[in-house]
Specification:
By secondary structure, the chain is an alpha/beta fold. It has helices at about 5, 20-35, 40-50, 70-85, 100-110, 160-170, 260-270, and strands spanning about 10-15, 60-65, 90-95, 115-120, 145, 175-185, 200, 210-220, 225-235, 240-255, 270-275, 280-290. The strands form two sheets. Strands 4-3-2-5-6-12-11 form a seven-stranded mixed β-sheet, sandwiched between helices. Strands 1-10-9-8-7 form a five-stranded mixed β-sheet, with helices on one face. The N and C termini lie far apart (about 60 Å). It is built from seven helices and twelve strands. Helix 2 (about 20-35) packs across helix 5 (about 100-110), helix 3 (about 40-50) packs across helix 4 (about 70-85) and helix 6 (about 160-170) crosses helix 7 (about 260-270). The chain binds S-adenosylmethionine. S-adenosylmethionine (SAM) binds near residues 35, 98, 124 and 148.
Length: about 290
């Protein structure tokens, strides 16, 4: 396989927009990108419990993971809770994502310690308050997570502000907390070379499928970063290679300045409680100040 073979045009897609791409993303995140945010979210969960005592036998905590992808953060949080000997039957999880393919992966991977409920909801960060269970204005989230730098997906004018305002509608007053991750590689002037992504990798879910990806242009223009890549999924049948999917991946991401998000948040009715610096990202912990 040469670069020339793969760099012939396929349809424009984003990196989460097919079942093959969703699996490819999962392979990369498990083998190359490998986030180290588990302990921060476990601490966030413990804080949530210390901030609000459940007030009856049927009361529950509500945790929403925005941009949940394959549900990694929810599964890791559930495992940490169970490993600490705590019961999950008072926790409801919602994983929200704009990609149904990512949600399908999330739903296909079991969560071993059983929470009160898990729902995988198709929808966008910018319309949180109009989606169940928040649309009636009664249910409130105790903990909201937008992990692994995903707020950089909100690159269009006004989108991040819209998301931050939506948080104020759904977050529980006083005790609710939102944790928003800003990835170091997606901050202005601080872009490191990404580790080279796997050129060729076999699927673990689809028999005889091989993924190939070649990185294309990576352009930084002000606070916007645009990356291109070429992707294909092939299947070998009787020694013949068949292309089963071909795509040109285009991805726009917003690069954030040091205080951009906390400044926007305070205009939108949220206030910074503290920041948690991890190996490759910073978590901004916020609460709602306009009640
Ligand atoms: C970098 S991945 C992170 C996945 C997961 N949170 C993790 O840490 O493994 C970003 C995810 O955000 C989703 N996403 C992008 N824009 C979104 C939006 N406006 N609302 C909700 N999810 C979005 C993508 O489909 C993708 O699954």
């Amino acid at each position: 396989m040469t670069r020339e073979n793969i760099e012939t045009p396929g349809p424009n897609m984003d990196i989460y927009s097919s079942a093959y791409l969703a699996e490819y993303y999962e392979i990369i995140i498990n083998s190359i990108l490998v986030p180290s945010d588990t302990s921060a979210y476990w601490t966030a969960y413990k804080n949530m419990m210390s901030l609000r005592t459940l007030d009856g036998p049927t009361a529950t905590y509500l945790v929403i993971d925005v941009g949940t992808g394959n549900g990694r953060i929810i599964r890791e949080m559930a495992t940490a809770v169970a490993n600490a000997g705590l019961n999950l039957h008072t926790t409801e999880f919602i994983g929200l994502d704009t990609s149904q393919h990512m949600l399908d992966r999330a739903a296909s991977i079991p969560i071993k310690p059983k929470p009160a409920s898990v729902s995988w909801i198709h929808g966008s960060a910018v319309e949180l308050a109009s989606m169940p269970p928040f649309d009636k204005g009664v249910r409130k989230a105790d903990l909201l997570v937008f992990g692994f730098g995903s707020i950089s997906h909100l690159w269009r004018d006004g989108e991040a502000e819209q998301f931050l305002r939506q948080i104020t509608f759904i977050l529980r007053p006083y005790t609710g907390r939102a944790y928003i991750s800003v990835h170091d590689n997606l901050t202005e002037g601080n872009q490191k070379e990404e580790p080279p992504l796997l050129d060729e990798t076999p699927s673990k879910s689809f028999p005889n499928i091989i993924y190939r990806k070649v990185d294309g242009e990576h352009i930084v223009n002000g606070n916007r970063c645009t990356t291109k890549a070429f992707f294909e999924a092939t299947k070998d049948v009787n020694d013949e290679r068949h292309i089963v999917e071909k795509a040109q991946i285009d991805m726009d991401l917003r690069l954030w300045g040091k205080n951009d998000i906390s400044n926007l948040a305070s205009q939108c009715g949220l206030s910074l409680v503290d920041t948690v610096k991890g190996e490759e990202e910073t978590l901004l912990n916020m609460w709602k100040v306009r009640l």
